[in-house]
Write a structure and sequence with these properties.
By secondary structure, the chain is mainly alpha-helical. The protein has a domain of about 190 residues: Rhomboid-like (Rhomboid-like fold). It is built from 11 helices and no strands. The longest helix is centred in the middle third of the chain and has 50 residues.
Length: about 270
C-alpha cells in the first residue's frame, strides 16, 4: 500500500479512502446480499425530521447500484486529487460540511421530502478542487462522466442483470426440486428447507425488481449539488485563503493560454 501510494501521492489519502470505504460498507450491509437496499432500510436512514442522526446517515446511503457508482467514482477521482493539495482532515470536513449544509437547505426548502446520497458532500469536494486546481478539475470533469457512462454504468448494468437472471434460474431449479421432493414423500424437514429457499429467493427477486424501478423513478435534485458546491468554496475561503490566492495565478495562466489558443485559431481561419 505504501509503495503504491508513494508512486502517485506524497501522502496516503486516508480521508478519501475512509469516506469511500464507509459508503461501500454501508451499502453492502443494508443491501443484504442483493444489489439494492430495501425501501424500509432506505426510509430508516434517509434525511427526515423524525431521525436527527439522519443528517449524517443519509450521506452514506444510496438508492441503487447506479446511484452508488455515480457518487463513489467522483468521490474517488476528485477526492484523491484534492487530497494531494489538502490534508485528509480537510477532505473529510469539506464532505461533511457540504453534505450536511446542502441537506439542511434542501430540508428547509422541501419539507417532508426524504433525501438520500452523498451528492452534496461530493459537490463540495469537486468545487474545492475546481477552485484550487483548475486544470486537474477540468480534465476530471470531462473524463469522469465519460468513464461512468460508457464503462462503469454498463458494467454495473451487466452485473445487476446477471444477478437477477441467476436468481430466476435458481428459483426455477429449487421449485423443481421442491415438487420432486413432495412427489417422492421426502422428509418434511427437507421439504420445508426447499420451500424456505424458494421464499428467500423470491424475496431477493422482489427487492431487486423494486430497487430497479425505484432507482429509475427517483429524481436527482440539482440544487443539492449547487448548495454543496457553495459550501465547499466557503470552507476554502474561511480556512484556506492562502491556497485560494495561490490558485489565482493558475487561473490567470490558464486564461492566458486559452486566449492564446483562441488567437491561434483565429489566425488559422483567416489563412
Amino acid at each position: 500500500m505504501k509503495l503504491l501510494t508513494g508512486m502517485f501521492f506524497k501522502k496516503t489519502p486516508f480521508g478519501t479512502i475512509f469516506l469511500a470505504i464507509f459508503i461501500l460498507v454501508a451499502y453492502w450491509l443494508l443491501a443484504a446480499d442483493t444489489p439494492y437496499i430495501t425501501d424500509e432500510n432506505l426510509g430508516d436512514y434517509a434525511l427526515t425530521p423524525n431521525h436527527p442522526l439522519s443528517i449524517i446517515s443519509h450521506l452514506f446511503i444510496h438508492v441503487g447500484i447506479f446511484h452508488l457508482v455515480g457518487n463513489l467514482l467522483p468521490l474517488l477521482f476528485f477526492g484523491l486529487a484534492l487530497e494531494a493539495v489538502l490534508i485528509s482532515a480537510d477532505v473529510v470536513l469539506i464532505f461533511f460540511l457540504a453534505g450536511t449544509g446542502a441537506s439542511l437547505i434542501f430540508a428547509i426548502t422541501n419539507p417532508g421530502v426524504p433525501l438520500i446520497g452523498a451528492s452534496g458532500g461530493i459537490s463540495g469536494i469537486i468545487s474545492a478542487l475546481l477552485l484550487l486546481r483548475p486544470k486537474v478539475s477540468i480534465a476530471l470533469l470531462l473524463a469522469t462522466p465519460l468513464l461512468i457512462s460508457f464503462v462503469f454504468y454498463p458494467a454495473a448494468d451487466f452485473a445487476s442483470n446477471a444477478y437477477a437472471n441467476s436468481l430466476e434460474e435458481k428459483k426455477i431449479a429449487v421449485q423443481e426440486d421442491l415438487q420432486t421432493a413432495i412427489e417422492e414423500n421426502r422428509p418434511i424437514e427437507e421439504i420445508a428447507k426447499l420451500n424456505q429457499t424458494v421464499l428467500v429467493t423470491e424475496e431477493k427477486i422482489d427487492i431487486t425488481f423494486q430497487g430497479k424501478e425505484r432507482e429509475a423513478a427517483t429524481p436527482t435534485d440539482f440544487f443539492v449539488h449547487v448548495y454543496g458546491a457553495i459550501f465547499g468554496g466557503v470552507y476554502l475561503y474561511l480556512f484556506k485563503i492562502k491556497l485560494l490566492k495561490r490558485s489565482e495565478k493558475e487561473y490567470l495562466k490558464l486564461g492566458e493560454e486559452i486566449f492564446e489558443k483562441i488567437d491561434q485559431i483565429k489566425e488559422r481561419l483567416r489563412i
